[in-house]
Amino acid sequence: MFEPEIAIVGSGPSGFFAAEALLKAGIGARVGMFDRLPTPYGLVRSGVAPDHQQIKQVVKVFDNLASNPQFSFFGNIDVGSDISLGSLRSRYDAVILAYGASAGTSLSIPGSRLAQSITASDFVGWYNGHPDFANFDPRFDHECAVVVGHGNVAIDVARILLSDHARLAKTDMADHAIEALRHSRVRRVHLVGRRGTIQASFTTAELRELLGLSDVRVVIEPDVLQLDEEERGFLELPVNAAIKRNFGIISDAASRGSDGEATRELHLKFLASPVTIEGTDRVEAVHFVRNRLEGPIACRRAVPSGERFSISAGLTIASIGFQGRPLGDVPFDDRRGIIPNVEGRVTGDSIGGASLYVAGWIKRGATGIIGTNRADAAETVRTLLADFRDKRWSVKTDRPQALAPPGNPRINFADWKRIDEAECRSGQEVGRPRRKIVSIDAMLDIARSGEAPATPSQPAA
Ligand SMILES: Cc1cc2nc3c(=O)[nH]c(=O)nc-3n(C[C@H](O)[C@H](O)[C@H](O)COP(=O)(O)OP(=O)(O)OC[C@H]3O[C@@H](n4cnc5c(N)ncnc54)[C@H](O)[C@@H]3O)c2cc1C
């Protein structure tokens, strides 16, 4: 046992799975996990949809890890602002960067900076009570909203916009979002993707749930269901079973026809890209070009056809990807939005101090589900251990006893548990899993006193 001290930056799934691999490696590792928020769990708390509580059960695994005496949580510390990465590197033997890649990619078309042209990242952060988005102000005062993108996050966004309000009000959605959506006038959502039915990256369960929402009429243009011979052959390949299943679900929804009773509509649109967003002070309409597909069947590209159409809408939400951000002097690949690495070891790092590693979305880009990060983080820890054996780093014999004090008060895991209990208690009183506290000041008050404020979800004035 060589008993290294390892810092992990970020307490999302990849940070916790890296901690798990280190603590189970039998090397006597001590882990210090840092997060810029007082709350742990990353996108499990601020990304996973509030009506998917089952998925959030993974935090029980993380809580179990956090109870290990070799593990410490330092919340409310932004590495890069409150403390420097350099000071972490002088204190710890190795540092794993697991700080995610959750900044939303914006549409870069004329009009995309208009008010109410937003990213899914901002919208999701807002309805999930991420403190950064407490004062965000999406408007639901127009009958129609446009969601651009055909992935699972786009599905989450469309489902939230179209869901029965009573259903959302029973979840842990932030109070401010429940309140704003209570008055929503949105009745029609256009979910638009640039490619065709067999290129969309929805997963089957999410697609089925969206197309089966109660009180929602699904509208799909029949043209998009016409496949040529090559496409039909593609669907028959065993490796494409999931794509074939999704195509079947889309075809079934299209053929179910109109439910005359439904009060809301989902227009699932394929082969179209937004080209301009129009409006004086805010979004009023989105103009699209229809696309055709070109290239080999397995990687068809969308090419504009010249044919145009427009949708009158008051809100546009772009769900076209997420990106990482650089941290200080750490090498960064701007094109891919990740930290360059080989199996988790940061490459091109010329700054001294502890060795640097990466895990999760900042290592490989914003792809994969929560579970994907377990194998990803395990790979990083394998590299880290191999590097120790190869003498690329060593355990410090002389280290500063404490880090320089950060500007913010620290939150340890017991503090977080007090916040957690306050949220759950307040939620249970009204039949909800929790009522999220959004204001960091309110969280810090609870961490110190253990008492919940009267209105836990209100942002600080
Ligand atoms: C909207 C959305 C919904 C999703 N839904 C699902 C789902 O239903 N099921 C599923 O399996 N997967 C889902 N995913 C994917 C899943 O959330 C990701 O695979 C996973 O969260 C990535 O983990 P991560 O640890 O790399 O990053 P993150 O979860 O983003 O964690 C990064 C952490 O780093 C912290 N941090 C950032 N910068 C700093 C800094 N400078 N200093 C200190 N800390 C910092 C952040 O506060 C955060 O806690 C969803 C993703 C999104 C975006």
From TrEMBL:
InterPro entries in UniProt: FAD/NAD-bd_sf, FAD/NAD-binding_dom, Ferredox_Rdtase, Ferredox_Rdtase_adrenod
Keyword set, alphabetical order: FAD, Flavoprotein, NADP, Oxidoreductase
Superkingdom to which the source organism belongs: Bacteria
Binding residues for FAD: S14, L43, V79, W361, G368, I369, I370
Cofactor requirements of the protein: FAD
Binding of NADP(+), residues: H150, G151, N152, V153, R194, R195, E206, G368
Record flagged with keyword Oxidoreductase: yes
Domain called FAD/NAD(P)-binding: residue spans: 5-229
GO molecular function, one term: oxidoreductase activity
UniProt keyword NADP, yes or no: yes
PANTHER family: GLUTAMATE SYNTHASE 1 [NADH], CHLOROPLASTIC-LIKE
Sequence similarity: Belongs to the ferredoxin--NADP reductase type 1 family.
The protein, known as: Ferredoxin--NADP+ reductase
Organism in which the protein naturally occurs: Bradyrhizobium canariense
